[in-house]
Amino acid sequence: EGRIELLINNEQEMVQLGRELAEVSGGHAVIYLVGNLGAGKTTLCRGILHSLGHQGAVKSPTYTLVEPYSVDGQQIYHFDLYRLADPEELEFIGGRDYFEEDCLCLIEWPCKGEGALPDADLEVQLDYNLPGRKALIKAGTERGKVMLKQLLG
Ligand code: ADP
Ligand code: MG
Questions:
Q1: What is the DSSP string of 40-65?
Q2: Which atom of ligand 1 is nearest to the CA of 37?
Q3: Beta-carbon count within 10 A of 59 CB
Q4: ipTM of the predicted structure?
Q5: FRET pair for 55, CA 20 to 30 Å: which of 22, 44, 70, 101?
Q6: Ligand 1 pocket: which residues have CB below 6 Å?
Q7: To the nearest whole percent, how much of the chain has pLDDT over 90?
Q8: Where are the domains of the chain?
Q9: CA-to-CA distance for 10 and 142, rounded, in angstroms?
Q10: pTM > 0.90
């Protein structure tokens, strides 16, 4: 109840998990992506974005902090807060505005924005389980619990 653990054997399976997350998100949700460098956070975001119809590349917005995507009239914001020095800086990149929209927010390194971020519907924690990865997915809201149930079902 409220959490699942998955083994993700390779990059393709990570992209597939992204697809499934995109489906249960219904296009609006807040998803935190937690894990060390190389854990697969951006790969998962790529799976989500491609599933929703984005056709180009997906890179971590390490220097710009956020990359906005508009796909079929739907807004998706991909954050990488690794270089955020202070959660208050989120205001300068318009963080608040993004969070108020009916959009999908994918947030890498949410710990850097602690206190200035909306609650996560789902938190995906990725860890090395070589040669693959493992994912611990936790629901943080009622909506997240529904998403998690759909993910299992
Ligand atoms: P992060 O954004 O967490 O720093 P990336 O998504 O950039 O990590 O992934 C780092 C590397 O790990 C990439 O080369 C990617 O292909 C690889 N990778 C991602 N998921 C898996 C997986 N489940 N098993 C093995 N390698 C993976
Ligand atoms: Mg990344």
A1: SHHHHHHHHHHHTT--S-----TTTS
A2: 4
A3: 13
A4: 0.98
A5: 101
A6: 8, 10-11, 13-14, 35, 37-43, 60, 131-133
A7: 84
A8: 3-152
A9: 30
A10: yes
Report how far apart the first and last C-alpha atoms of the chain are (Å, whole number).
13
Q: Fill in the amino acid letter for 124.
A: V
- Amino acid at site 1: E
Q: 4-45, pLDDT tens digit by residue? A: 999 999 999 999 999 999 999 988 999 999 999 999 999 999
Q: 95 CB contacts (<8 Å, ≥6 apart)?
A: 66, 113, 116, 117
Residue nearest to atom 21 of ligand 1 (CA): 11
Q: What is the pLDDT of residues 52-61, one digit of tens each?
A: 999 999 999 9
Q: Which ligand is nearest to the CA of 135?
A: 1
Ligand nearest to the CA of 41: 1
Could you tell me which residues are beta bridge partners of residue 33?
108, 124
Q: How many other C-beta atoms can be found within 10 angstroms of the C-beta atom of residue 115?
A: 7
